[in-house]
Design goal:
Elements lengths: L13 H10 L3 H13 L14 H25 L7 H27 L2 H11 L6 H32 L8 H21 L5 H20 L7 H24 L10 H36 L8
Helix pairs in contact: 1-3, 1-7, 2-3, 3-4, 4-6, 5-6, 6-8, 7-9, 7-10, 8-9, 9-10
Protein backbone atom coordinates (compact mmCIF):
# COMPACT_ATOMS: atom_id res chain seq x y z
CA UNK A 1 0.00 0.00 0.00
CA UNK A 2 1.57 3.29 -1.12
CA UNK A 3 1.78 6.43 1.00
CA UNK A 4 -0.55 8.21 -1.41
CA UNK A 5 -3.43 5.82 -0.76
CA UNK A 6 -6.15 6.83 1.70
CA UNK A 7 -8.15 4.80 4.18
CA UNK A 8 -11.26 7.01 4.46
CA UNK A 9 -12.88 9.61 2.28
CA UNK A 10 -15.24 12.05 4.03
CA UNK A 11 -17.14 14.69 2.07
CA UNK A 12 -19.44 17.40 3.43
CA UNK A 13 -19.80 19.98 0.59
CA UNK A 14 -17.18 22.34 1.98
CA UNK A 15 -17.95 24.92 -0.69
CA UNK A 16 -21.45 25.48 0.69
CA UNK A 17 -20.24 25.60 4.29
CA UNK A 18 -17.71 28.27 3.31
CA UNK A 19 -20.68 30.28 2.06
CA UNK A 20 -22.22 30.05 5.55
CA UNK A 21 -18.98 31.44 7.02
CA UNK A 22 -18.80 34.23 4.44
CA UNK A 23 -22.40 35.44 4.72
CA UNK A 24 -23.20 34.41 8.30
CA UNK A 25 -22.51 37.85 9.73
CA UNK A 26 -25.12 39.51 7.52
CA UNK A 27 -27.85 38.66 10.03
CA UNK A 28 -27.19 42.10 11.55
CA UNK A 29 -28.12 43.83 8.30
CA UNK A 30 -31.13 41.60 7.70
CA UNK A 31 -32.54 41.88 11.23
CA UNK A 32 -31.86 45.52 12.01
CA UNK A 33 -30.49 47.67 9.19
CA UNK A 34 -32.83 46.54 6.41
CA UNK A 35 -36.09 46.80 8.42
CA UNK A 36 -35.07 50.09 10.03
CA UNK A 37 -33.62 51.97 7.06
CA UNK A 38 -35.47 50.19 4.26
CA UNK A 39 -38.97 50.05 5.74
CA UNK A 40 -38.83 52.38 8.74
CA UNK A 41 -39.49 49.53 11.19
CA UNK A 42 -37.23 50.25 14.16
CA UNK A 43 -38.92 48.16 16.84
CA UNK A 44 -37.99 44.84 15.24
CA UNK A 45 -34.34 45.44 16.09
CA UNK A 46 -34.98 45.52 19.85
CA UNK A 47 -36.32 43.00 22.35
CA UNK A 48 -38.30 43.26 25.56
CA UNK A 49 -35.26 41.91 27.43
CA UNK A 50 -33.79 45.21 28.66
CA UNK A 51 -34.34 46.64 25.14
CA UNK A 52 -31.19 44.82 24.00
CA UNK A 53 -30.80 44.75 20.18
CA UNK A 54 -32.10 41.52 18.67
CA UNK A 55 -28.94 40.75 16.75
CA UNK A 56 -26.92 40.51 19.98
CA UNK A 57 -29.13 37.69 21.23
CA UNK A 58 -28.99 36.05 17.80
CA UNK A 59 -25.19 36.12 17.92
CA UNK A 60 -25.15 34.16 21.17
CA UNK A 61 -28.06 31.77 20.56
CA UNK A 62 -27.88 31.19 16.79
CA UNK A 63 -24.79 32.61 15.06
CA UNK A 64 -22.27 31.01 17.43
CA UNK A 65 -23.56 27.43 17.05
CA UNK A 66 -24.16 27.78 13.30
CA UNK A 67 -20.73 29.20 12.53
CA UNK A 68 -19.09 26.56 14.73
CA UNK A 69 -20.88 23.81 12.82
CA UNK A 70 -19.91 25.34 9.46
CA UNK A 71 -16.23 25.52 10.45
CA UNK A 72 -16.42 21.99 11.86
CA UNK A 73 -17.78 20.72 8.55
CA UNK A 74 -15.06 22.56 6.64
CA UNK A 75 -12.38 21.04 8.84
CA UNK A 76 -13.95 17.59 8.40
CA UNK A 77 -13.88 17.88 4.61
CA UNK A 78 -10.41 19.42 4.30
CA UNK A 79 -8.90 16.69 6.48
CA UNK A 80 -11.29 13.91 5.50
CA UNK A 81 -8.79 11.81 3.52
CA UNK A 82 -6.75 9.71 5.96
CA UNK A 83 -3.36 8.64 4.53
CA UNK A 84 -2.53 4.97 4.70
CA UNK A 85 1.10 5.56 5.62
CA UNK A 86 1.37 5.63 9.48
CA UNK A 87 3.85 8.53 9.56
CA UNK A 88 1.76 10.68 7.22
CA UNK A 89 -1.38 9.70 9.14
CA UNK A 90 0.04 11.07 12.40
CA UNK A 91 1.04 14.31 10.66
CA UNK A 92 -2.39 14.55 9.06
CA UNK A 93 -4.16 14.10 12.40
CA UNK A 94 -2.04 16.82 14.01
CA UNK A 95 -3.04 19.23 11.26
CA UNK A 96 -6.69 18.31 11.68
CA UNK A 97 -6.37 18.87 15.42
CA UNK A 98 -4.93 22.34 14.78
CA UNK A 99 -8.00 23.13 12.66
CA UNK A 100 -10.37 21.81 15.33
CA UNK A 101 -8.57 23.83 18.01
CA UNK A 102 -8.76 27.05 15.97
CA UNK A 103 -12.48 26.41 15.49
CA UNK A 104 -12.95 26.03 19.25
CA UNK A 105 -10.96 29.22 19.91
CA UNK A 106 -13.14 31.14 17.46
CA UNK A 107 -16.30 29.93 19.21
CA UNK A 108 -14.75 30.96 22.52
CA UNK A 109 -14.24 34.44 21.06
CA UNK A 110 -17.93 34.58 20.14
CA UNK A 111 -18.72 33.68 23.74
CA UNK A 112 -16.50 36.44 25.10
CA UNK A 113 -18.33 38.84 22.81
CA UNK A 114 -21.43 38.26 24.93
CA UNK A 115 -19.99 41.11 27.02
CA UNK A 116 -21.45 43.33 24.28
CA UNK A 117 -24.84 42.83 25.96
CA UNK A 118 -23.51 44.42 29.16
CA UNK A 119 -21.69 47.21 27.35
CA UNK A 120 -24.75 48.17 25.29
CA UNK A 121 -27.06 47.99 28.34
CA UNK A 122 -24.69 50.18 30.36
CA UNK A 123 -24.17 52.77 27.64
CA UNK A 124 -27.55 53.02 25.94
CA UNK A 125 -30.01 52.25 28.76
CA UNK A 126 -28.23 53.22 31.97
CA UNK A 127 -26.00 55.99 30.59
CA UNK A 128 -22.90 54.46 32.22
CA UNK A 129 -19.75 54.98 30.16
CA UNK A 130 -17.12 55.11 32.90
CA UNK A 131 -16.00 53.04 35.87
CA UNK A 132 -14.21 49.75 36.33
CA UNK A 133 -17.19 47.53 35.46
CA UNK A 134 -17.93 49.35 32.21
CA UNK A 135 -14.27 49.44 31.23
CA UNK A 136 -13.97 45.70 31.80
CA UNK A 137 -17.07 44.99 29.71
CA UNK A 138 -15.75 47.28 26.94
CA UNK A 139 -12.37 45.53 26.99
CA UNK A 140 -13.96 42.08 26.70
CA UNK A 141 -16.35 43.28 23.97
CA UNK A 142 -14.21 45.51 21.74
CA UNK A 143 -10.77 44.28 22.76
CA UNK A 144 -10.22 40.66 23.69
CA UNK A 145 -13.16 39.08 21.85
CA UNK A 146 -12.33 40.71 18.53
CA UNK A 147 -8.69 39.70 18.68
CA UNK A 148 -9.68 36.11 19.48
CA UNK A 149 -12.29 35.95 16.70
CA UNK A 150 -10.33 37.71 13.96
CA UNK A 151 -7.03 35.93 14.54
CA UNK A 152 -8.51 32.43 14.91
CA UNK A 153 -10.89 32.78 11.94
CA UNK A 154 -8.33 34.02 9.44
CA UNK A 155 -5.71 31.60 10.70
CA UNK A 156 -8.19 28.78 10.13
CA UNK A 157 -9.10 29.93 6.61
CA UNK A 158 -5.43 30.16 5.68
CA UNK A 159 -4.89 26.70 7.22
CA UNK A 160 -7.58 25.31 4.92
CA UNK A 161 -5.92 26.94 1.91
CA UNK A 162 -2.56 25.34 2.73
CA UNK A 163 -3.72 21.82 3.61
CA UNK A 164 -6.91 21.29 1.61
CA UNK A 165 -7.23 17.89 -0.01
CA UNK A 166 -6.04 17.68 -3.60
CA UNK A 167 -8.55 17.83 -6.40
CA UNK A 168 -10.97 20.46 -5.09
CA UNK A 169 -11.33 22.27 -8.40
CA UNK A 170 -14.28 23.77 -10.20
CA UNK A 171 -16.85 26.33 -9.00
CA UNK A 172 -14.31 29.04 -9.79
CA UNK A 173 -16.88 31.84 -10.02
CA UNK A 174 -18.48 30.80 -6.73
CA UNK A 175 -15.09 30.82 -5.01
CA UNK A 176 -14.31 34.26 -6.39
CA UNK A 177 -17.73 35.55 -5.32
CA UNK A 178 -17.16 34.25 -1.80
CA UNK A 179 -13.68 35.78 -1.67
CA UNK A 180 -14.87 39.21 -2.81
CA UNK A 181 -17.85 39.23 -0.45
CA UNK A 182 -15.73 38.12 2.50
CA UNK A 183 -12.98 40.60 1.68
CA UNK A 184 -15.43 43.49 1.65
CA UNK A 185 -17.45 42.29 4.66
CA UNK A 186 -14.47 41.45 6.87
CA UNK A 187 -12.61 44.56 5.73
CA UNK A 188 -15.43 46.63 7.19
CA UNK A 189 -15.90 44.18 10.08
CA UNK A 190 -12.32 44.73 11.18
CA UNK A 191 -12.95 48.47 11.14
CA UNK A 192 -16.17 48.01 13.13
CA UNK A 193 -14.23 45.97 15.65
CA UNK A 194 -11.69 48.82 15.97
CA UNK A 195 -8.95 46.52 14.64
CA UNK A 196 -8.44 48.03 11.19
CA UNK A 197 -4.67 47.58 11.55
CA UNK A 198 -5.15 43.81 11.31
CA UNK A 199 -6.02 44.24 7.63
CA UNK A 200 -2.40 44.11 6.37
CA UNK A 201 -1.71 41.18 8.71
CA UNK A 202 -4.63 39.21 7.26
CA UNK A 203 -3.51 39.98 3.70
CA UNK A 204 0.06 38.88 4.44
CA UNK A 205 -1.09 35.64 6.09
CA UNK A 206 -3.51 34.69 3.31
CA UNK A 207 -0.88 35.49 0.66
CA UNK A 208 1.58 33.30 2.57
CA UNK A 209 -1.00 30.52 2.66
CA UNK A 210 -1.44 30.69 -1.13
CA UNK A 211 2.33 30.61 -1.60
CA UNK A 212 2.71 27.61 0.72
CA UNK A 213 -0.09 25.84 -1.14
CA UNK A 214 1.72 26.48 -4.41
CA UNK A 215 4.86 24.96 -2.90
CA UNK A 216 2.84 21.86 -1.99
CA UNK A 217 0.91 21.22 -5.22
CA UNK A 218 2.66 23.28 -7.93
CA UNK A 219 0.71 24.56 -10.93
CA UNK A 220 -2.45 22.71 -9.82
CA UNK A 221 -2.96 25.64 -7.43
CA UNK A 222 -4.24 27.71 -10.37
CA UNK A 223 -7.47 25.74 -10.49
CA UNK A 224 -8.19 25.15 -6.79
CA UNK A 225 -11.33 26.41 -5.09
CA UNK A 226 -9.82 27.67 -1.84
CA UNK A 227 -6.99 29.43 -3.67
CA UNK A 228 -9.45 31.34 -5.85
CA UNK A 229 -11.35 32.33 -2.72
CA UNK A 230 -8.15 33.47 -0.97
CA UNK A 231 -6.87 35.50 -3.93
CA UNK A 232 -10.18 37.35 -4.28
CA UNK A 233 -10.18 38.10 -0.54
CA UNK A 234 -6.58 39.35 -0.73
CA UNK A 235 -7.56 41.74 -3.54
CA UNK A 236 -10.79 43.11 -2.08
CA UNK A 237 -10.03 43.43 1.62
CA UNK A 238 -7.53 46.31 1.11
CA UNK A 239 -9.82 47.87 -1.50
CA UNK A 240 -12.72 47.98 0.96
CA UNK A 241 -10.60 49.44 3.75
CA UNK A 242 -8.95 52.02 1.47
CA UNK A 243 -12.33 53.06 0.02
CA UNK A 244 -13.76 53.43 3.51
CA UNK A 245 -10.87 55.60 4.67
CA UNK A 246 -10.98 57.81 1.58
CA UNK A 247 -14.74 58.26 1.95
CA UNK A 248 -14.99 58.76 5.74
CA UNK A 249 -11.53 60.26 6.32
CA UNK A 250 -10.75 57.97 9.24
CA UNK A 251 -11.33 54.44 10.54
CA UNK A 252 -14.22 55.29 12.82
CA UNK A 253 -16.50 52.25 13.26
CA UNK A 254 -19.40 52.23 10.77
CA UNK A 255 -21.90 52.02 13.67
CA UNK A 256 -20.72 55.47 14.80
CA UNK A 257 -21.68 57.11 11.50
CA UNK A 258 -24.86 59.18 11.25
CA UNK A 259 -27.89 57.46 9.71
CA UNK A 260 -27.63 59.04 6.25
CA UNK A 261 -23.94 58.22 5.96
CA UNK A 262 -24.56 54.68 7.18
CA UNK A 263 -27.26 54.09 4.55
CA UNK A 264 -24.91 55.34 1.84
CA UNK A 265 -22.23 53.02 3.21
CA UNK A 266 -24.53 50.03 2.80
CA UNK A 267 -25.24 51.02 -0.80
CA UNK A 268 -21.53 51.56 -1.45
CA UNK A 269 -20.70 48.17 0.07
CA UNK A 270 -23.18 46.42 -2.22
CA UNK A 271 -21.79 48.31 -5.22
CA UNK A 272 -18.17 47.46 -4.42
CA UNK A 273 -19.08 43.79 -3.88
CA UNK A 274 -20.94 43.51 -7.19
CA UNK A 275 -18.31 45.44 -9.16
CA UNK A 276 -15.49 43.55 -7.46
CA UNK A 277 -17.05 40.19 -8.23
CA UNK A 278 -17.51 41.08 -11.89
CA UNK A 279 -13.95 42.37 -12.14
CA UNK A 280 -12.22 39.37 -10.59
CA UNK A 281 -14.31 36.91 -12.61
CA UNK A 282 -13.44 38.76 -15.82
CA UNK A 283 -9.76 38.82 -14.83
CA UNK A 284 -9.84 35.09 -14.04
CA UNK A 285 -11.37 34.30 -17.43
CA UNK A 286 -8.76 36.42 -19.18
CA UNK A 287 -5.96 34.61 -17.36
CA UNK A 288 -7.58 31.27 -18.20
CA UNK A 289 -7.67 32.12 -21.91
CA UNK A 290 -4.07 33.32 -21.75
CA UNK A 291 -2.99 30.03 -20.16
CA UNK A 292 -4.84 28.09 -22.86
CA UNK A 293 -3.04 30.01 -25.60
CA UNK A 294 0.33 29.56 -23.90
CA UNK A 295 -0.20 25.82 -23.37
CA UNK A 296 -2.43 24.52 -26.19
CA UNK A 297 -3.45 20.84 -26.03
CA UNK A 298 -1.14 18.46 -27.89
CA UNK A 299 -2.83 16.63 -30.75
CA UNK A 300 -3.56 13.00 -29.93
CA UNK A 301 -3.16 13.47 -26.16
CA UNK A 302 -6.16 13.35 -23.86
Amino acid sequence: MSGDEVLVRQRTRAELWLGVVVFGRLYTVLMCDLPAYGFGVDWICHTWIHDIPTYLWVEILVYGPVIWFALYQLNTDVFGDLPADPLRLRQHRRRRLVGATATAVFLYGVGIHAADLIEVLSREREGITTGAVYELAYFLDEGLSHYVQFVSLFFLLGWFVIFDRRGRIGNRNLALCFGVAHGVERGLGIIEGEKWFLGPVVIAWMATAVWLRWRRVGSAVLDEFFVHYAVALILLLPVSQAAYYLWVGEFTPPSNLDDDTYVRLIALTVGVTVAGTGTVIALDRWLLRRRARAHPPIAGRT
